[in-house]
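ok so for the tutorial part 2 we go from a plain amino acid sequence to predicted structure tokens. step 1 is just haveing the sequence, like this:
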Amino acid sequence: MSGEAPEQSLFEAPPMGEQERMVEAILFASAAPVTLSELASRMPHGCDPAEALVTLRRRYEGRGVQLVKVADTYVFRTAPDLGHLMQKEVAEQRKLSRAAIETLAIIAYHQPVTRAEIEEIRGVAVSRGTVDQLLELEWIRLGRRRMTPGRPVTFVVTDHFLMHFGLESARDLPGLKELRAAGLLDSRPLPGGLAGPGEDEESAEGQSELFED
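step 2 — the prediction. this is what the tokens look like for a chain of 213 residues:
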């Protein structure tokens, strides 16, 4: 009959608005960040979770909760300017040692990097305890072995590290100007070898405060 709406095919993807609702529901219900492939596997055939994520992220801009990308995953997080509302007092706050801060900074800015390369940049040996502390915090992990004599293992930062500091990827690590603007500079300079690609040695100064938490 001419006045009836056409029936939706069983193999036809739901409207984009409905796909956005599906993505929203999955992310809110998930205890951990969700990858694009995981979203696709949970949604009906023919859905485009990537497009739904784009429009969903726009819809949450300026809200108290934002949809952010961390590495290859997506998660809802409290808006940065409202983070203080979620904080609570703790009896003891652990700070990383100077050696751990330097080691973490070197890995973050120069990953993948071997222990020998870390020691070359710092100018001193890296203790096993320092590396173990960073591994225990799940801020670094073992990377691929180098195809060099001895095949030394490399270290890289983890998604947990990126989430803790609100970074989408290691490429988003702040430079000197951003650190100064945020008041995160320390008067004690880190080793000059920490200067990242496109930065001079001065731009690596003071990055230790970034990792004191």
